[in-house]
Every structure is written in structure tokens, then in C-alpha cells.
Amino acid sequence: MSASPSRAGIGQGRLAAFALPIGTIALLLVGWHVAVVASGSDLFPKPLDVLAGLVELVEKGLLLKYVVASLFRVTWGFGLAVLVGVPLGLVLGWWRPAFLALNPVIQALRPISPIAWIPVAILWFGIADAAPIFLIFLASVFPITVSSMAGVQNMQQVYLRAAQNFGMRGVPLFRRVILPAALPQILTGIRIALGVAWLVVVAAEMIAVNSGLGYLIIDARNAGKRYDLVVAGMVMIGSIGLVLDLLVRRLERIDSVRWGYGQR
Amino acid sequence: MANADPIVDVADLWMSFPGKQPDQPVHVLERVGLQVRHGEFVCIVGPSGCGKSTLLNVLGGFLGETRGTARVEGAPVRGPDPGRIFVFQENGVFPWLTVEQNVGFGLWQRSAAERDERVRHYIAMVGLQGFERSYPRELSGGMRQRVEIARALAANARVLFMDEPFGALDFLTRLKMRQDLVRIWQSENKTVLFVTHDIEEAVQLADRVLVMSKRPATIQAEVVIDLPRPRDLDSPGYLAARDRIFSIMGMDAHGGGVS
Q: Taking CB atoms and an 8 Å limit, are A167 and B88 in contact across chains?
């Protein structure tokens, strides 16, 4: 979200957009350091210990490997969820019998935490990559489906009437009108789903596999209480989550969907 | 106003919607009859909520009539038709398309070359040169209505059904839009059926004004506006026509009731 160019002026707003979050992070780091020193804990790491832990992971060649492993699983699970969720949601939003038939099932499956599926996933897929990919898919397919469905259902009737007036129906109507009309809401669902997917990959890796950032955290804890590496893993998860969100937010600035997000 | 082959021919049209109680439907239109000749500009005025828009939606093919017949271009209306384009009050343009993409929307089955040429022509006609690549959210309300009118013209619609197209615009913009619409109508040989609640607007635009009654609405009077264009809004003929419609609707021109 960009700072609004109010009386402060655009240049100053830009400066604030960098200075404010960086200042907040610096304050948190200082507070963290002081708190650990004051508590005299010898297990919980200070910020610099975590940095040293990250450097150690880089030197061992593990950091990149684990990040890539986690992103690989998210890409597959989330990508499949987009491929299934968007068309499914569009059909459910458009064709009432499909909605009547499937919506109760979807609404009943949706509140089941992906964590609850972990035993089932292990039963079906073992501890290979397929298990976490399945869990990520499950976690992200529902927000995408539901938002795509709502995007069609909330579409302004005037768009549909205008298009039908010009003789458009069937596939062109879907591609040129229904999909673009629903796209802002679809993107919002995709953004929520990506956050959930990243949340779930870490949880899944703690149990099912032997690589990735979730595995890093559990492994560092079990093999020698390396809390510097535990927190290093958490920092990486948070940073990558932030970058993913920024990337999806960029999509919302594309001209053909900006109309759907208010005037700010 | 009988004519051998009217473009729009409505006879004894009735329209009701289901009411809150199942046995008490809401009667919106009763015994509506009207005819519009080729190339004519006809305005329908009436009190708010009387069913003017409902009537237009039946003619546009978006609503089915309850009883009676609505024929357009010689055949009963069975649904929307690309030859008869509806112009909405607002938000009728697609916000995800640029001005030129919107104007070219109805030409989606034509070749790119033909589309580009028609789009350029009609963008110029409605005075939107320089805004071809703009998105609707970057335009004023009046400019968005210009886009919608250009979209209808570019698709070569023979009949325009306009549903209070200037109703959401400010006063000065409305005046300008009316002038431009008359100019475009004169050069394009279209038939226009234009719904408005604004009596002055109707008298400024129309060859004939049809006055609807309160609900359940019917056409209660027809006023022929036989005045040269561009119309002088101070001329006795203009004022007389305006006052006559006011009085048919139970008001005088100063906002009071007729005794």
C-alpha cells in the first residue's frame, strides 16, 4: 500500500515508506538483544547469534538448499491449487446447480485445518514430497475457489447485460467478461492462499520430510538444541513470506485489475 | 401516430413482478402501447419508479413481458440483439478495458483493421481523442458515458435504448452531452428511445415525448416537439411544450401542484 501523497508531499512519503519499517525492525532487534542479555538466557540466541547461524548455514550450503526445497513444494501445491481452484470457482459462481451440489462439501472441508490432514497425507503419500505438496494444495485451494466463486456471484449485472447485448455468449463471454470481472477478487483469494501455503509448508516439513525450512527448525532443535538455527529458520520463513506477499501485491497494481481495489 | 412499419411497436403490454405475498403481484406496466418510427428520437418521461426502465428493459430483451407484445424491427423481442444496444445509466463500460478496447468491444468478431478504423472514427465523434489508452477509472462520469455511446455506435446499432444515460452527471455536463447526442443522432440516422425523469431533458432532445403515469404505468399522453434544432431553451415553443408536460404530470413549471 503506497503512502497517500497528502500534505507531506510525495518525496517525503517515499522516505517514510522506507524509514518507518526499517526503524521498526531496528528497534525490535535492539529490544530483542537487550531482553536476551537481561534475562541471562544461554539457550535463546541474540540477533547476532542468529546472523552467525545464517552464515553457518550458507557456508554448509544448506540455506539455499532448504529454501529451494520449501519453495519447490509451495510452487507445486499452490500452482495446482490455482489450476483447480480458479476454474472450479468460476463454474460454481456461474452455474447454480454446481453451486448447490458442491458448496456444502466445500464449506465442510474448508474449516478442517491442513495440520489435521498430516496423518492422512502420510498414509496416502508416505514421507516423499507428494505429502507436503498435497497439504499445501488442500490449504490453498479453498480460499482460491471461494474467492473465484464470489467474484462471479458479485459481478455487476450491467457487465453481463452489456456483453450479451453485443451477442457474446459461451467461451468468449467467460474469457472476455466474466473472468476479468472476477479477477480482482480472484487475486485477493490467491494472495490469501499464498500466505496460507507458506504457513503450511513449514508445518508439513516438520513432520513429513527431511529438507526445507520446517525441517531445519525441527532438526536444529532435536540435534543439539541449536536455537540460533531455529530462529534463523524462522527469520527466513518470515522474510520469504514478506517477499511473496509483495510480489502478489504487485499483481494488484496491473491496470486491468486496479479498478477492483478502491481508489487509493 | 400510426405508421406502416414502425421500428418499435408495443401493443397492450403488461408487466407484473411477484410481490411479497404470492397472491399479490406488483403491477408495473398496464396496457402500454407505443410506436417509434425509423430515425425518430423519442423520450419517455414519468415519475420516479413508474416503470420506464422496466419498459426499456423489455424492449432491450433483458426482461420478458407478462402479457401483450413488444416488437422491435418487425419481430417479437426474444432477447438482447447486437442491432439494438442498451445504454445504461452508469458503470456500463468495462473497467478492465481501455477506452479504445471498450469502444471496440462490440466488434469482437470483426477483423482488427476494421475494428481499429471504426474505433478511431467513433472516439473522434464523441470527442475522446487523446484518451484511447485511458481506463474508465481515469475518466469523468460524462466521459465514461461518451465511451458507452461510442461503443454502441461503433457496433453499428440501429436502435439505441438509453436508460437515463445522463442521470448521474452534473448539470453543465448534462447540457453538453445532450447537444452532442443530438448532433450524433442527426449525423448517424439512428432510432433512439430515451428514458428520463427530466422533463427539460426530454423537450431538449426528442421529436416526441411520451408521458407515463404513476404505477401501474401506462402511456398517458404524447407531446410532439416540433421545434428546430439546435433548440432555443427560451423560445415560447420550448417553454410551452415543457409546461404542457409538467401539467400532464400534475405539476406546474414552478414546482407547485396544478389546482
A: no
User: What DSSP assignment string belongs to A206-227?
Assistant: HHS-SSSHHHHHHHHHHTT--H
pLDDT in tens, A45-104: 999 999 999 999 999 999 999 999 999 999 999 999 999 999 999 999 999 999 999 999
Residues of chain B with CATH 3.40.50.300: 1-82+159-259
Which residues of B make CB contacts under 8 Å with A? 60-62, 79-82, 84-86, 88, 91-92, 94-97, 105-106, 108-109, 135-137, 155
Using a CB-CB cut-off of 8 Å, the residues of chain B touching A181 are 94, 96
Q: Phi and psi (nearest 5°) for A212?
A: 100, 170
A172 vs B contacts (CB less than 8 Å): 108
CATH 3.40.250.10 for domain B1-82+159-259, yes or no, is no
**pLDDT tens profile A178-194:** 999 999 999 999 999 99
CA neighbor of B175 nearest in space, from B201, B155, B157, B153: B201
Q: Which residue of B has its CA nearest to A262?
A: B137
Range of the domain at A180: 45-261
Can you tell me the ipTM of this complex? 0.89
On the CB side of A158, how many CA atoms lie within 13 Å of its CA?
A: 12
Nearest chain A alpha carbon to B160 = A165
